[in-house]
Amino acid sequence: MAELDRYLVEQRERFEDELCELLRIASVSTDGQHAAEIRQAGEWVAAQLRGLGLATELIDTSGNPVVYAQSAPVAGAPVVLVYGHYDVQPPDPLGEWISPPFEPTRRNGNLYARGATDDKGQMLTHIKSAEAWIRTVGRLPVQLKFLIEGEEEVGSRGVTDLIGQEAERLACDVVVISDSCQFGPGQPAITYGLKGLAYFELRLTGPRQDLHSGTFGGAVTNPANGLTRMLASLINDVGRVQVPGFYDDVVPLSDRERQQFASLPFDESVFMQRLGVQGLAGEQGYTTLERRWARPTFDINGIWGGYQGAGSKTVLPARAGAKFSFRLVPDQDPDKIRRALREHLEPLCPPGIQMELIDMHGARGIVVPLDSPFMQAAATAIEQGFGRPPVFIREGGSIPIVNVFHELLGVDTLLLGWGQDDDNTHSPNEKFSLADFHRGIRTSAHLWHALGKIEVEQRA
Ligand SMILES: [Zn+2]
User: Fold this and answer.
1) Which of these, 119, 130, 118, 122, lies nearest to 49 by C-alpha position?
2) For the chain, which terminus, N or C, has the lower number of CB atoms within 10 Å?
3) How many CB atoms are located within 10 Å of the residue 301 CB?
4) Quick one: angle between helices 121-136 and 434-452, nearest 10?
5) Distance 86 CA to ligand 1 centre (A)
């Protein structure tokens, strides 16, 4: 690896210049107004991969074009699919940028531009590491398949269809995504778990129209009263969800995970200060990080009914409703939760009220086993690239494409983020640390090496 590491040092400036080229293309996917720049960015990425001798295509989809490229198969070694995206969020509000969003500018060791970290800069680390292998060793130690899409910021429609249609061509042993953050400056992390989601809307309808609460109150059921009782029944005062069977399939936190989380430098008072709250609450028996990352939760996301204007209006509303969601963890099944929820709520719906429960969407939570050989390889590579072993963290949100890879290709994803949580993704003055850019490339180069040592069964 010495020659390869030397190559990475020699080429630093050119790598940065090439990233700047890509960042100058305003490939905003949000509003459909930048179709030309979207294609231009896709073509730029395709040209990079083609330049390395990879079989490369810019594939038209039901949405924006997807770049697909693959290197030669390597007998006995894993096939690794690298996913990333070349589209970006809109730069608004423009006035808040210190330097223009599509004129990449170096300041204090950072590169400022829309897309610098999300995801052009992070994505490019894997192309540059492949380049280093090909230019110094002459070949890659694993087969790489690059899948770089152009509408991640608006729901990944085209690429999701494509994965369904081309499952055979995209077959792989593991997926690598760099589109997330380190735990903090100088502390790299591997995100090994994501939560799932079960999202609902509950609509209650009572009398034909709003009624006088003096004349009819107490005799006619108030949908808002019914709604609050039904919602309150979903969770108790020590943070436990009360839907029967809700916890049946929850995989408990292992001792190793709990120790890992406890060893992280997480300051609850700083956390509270940042959020502007005086206290924290959640499921009894779990720490804040455990609740956020690894325990299922319930939240009302919106609630309405009755009079909301100034002053008082003595009304018994005809309708009330709420949107609410459960964040799920492995191995909870959103379909099972939906059935159990309906069975739980229906008997609680008071007489004179019609209830409608709408299933908005569901996704399963995901965890990559910490002892998976792919995870070990990633940890080794990060230690090489960043000079420090990663911490293992989970995330309370979902990344739908990770579920797509799991469901359609049957593989796990390594979430290896090179960003920082103050990189201003989706905000003015987005940046990417140039040191992290180069550490990411080096880590990626070492990752192909470490993954190449894992023996896998030959694909038929
Ligand atoms: Zn992204």
Assistant:
1) 130
2) C
3) 12
4) 50
5) 9
- Between helix 2-10 and helix 434-452 the angle, nearest 10°, is 160
Q: What is d(CA 344, CA 450) in angstroms, rounded to the nearest whole number?
A: 50
Of 3.40.50.300, 3.40.630.10, 3.10.20.880, 3.30.70.270, the CATH number of 2-194+367-452 is 3.40.630.10
CA 101 distance to own-chain centroid? 23
Question: How far is ligand 1, taken at its centre, from the CA of residue 433, in Å?
Answer: 16
Both tokens of residue 40?
């231009």
Question: Among 83, 91, 102, which residue's Cα sits nearest to residue 149?
Answer: 83
Show the tokens assigned to 115: 């897309």
49: Cβ–Cβ under 8 A, 6 or more apart, which residues?
56, 67, 69, 127, 146
Give tens-digit pLDDT for 239-284. Answer: 999 999 999 999 999 999 999 999 998 999 999 998 899 999 999 9
| Strand-strand pairing, 413-416 and 105-107 | unpaired
Show me where the domains of the chain are located. Answer: 2-194+367-452, 196-250+296-363
In the reported structure, the alpha carbon of residue 425 is separated from the centroid of ligand 1 by a whole-number distance in angstroms of: 8
Sign of the C-alpha dihedral, residues 287, 288, 294, 296?
A: positive
**E strand or H helix at 377:** helix 373-386
Class of domain 196-250+296-363: alpha beta
At which residue do the structure tokens 């129209």 appear? 209
Picking from 98, 166, 187, the residue whose alpha carbon sits closest to that of residue 427 is 98
Ligand 1 center–CA 153 separation, angstroms: 7
Ligand 1 centroid – CA 41 distance (Å): 15
- Tell me, yes or no, if the two domains 2-194+367-452 and 196-250+296-363 fold the same way: no
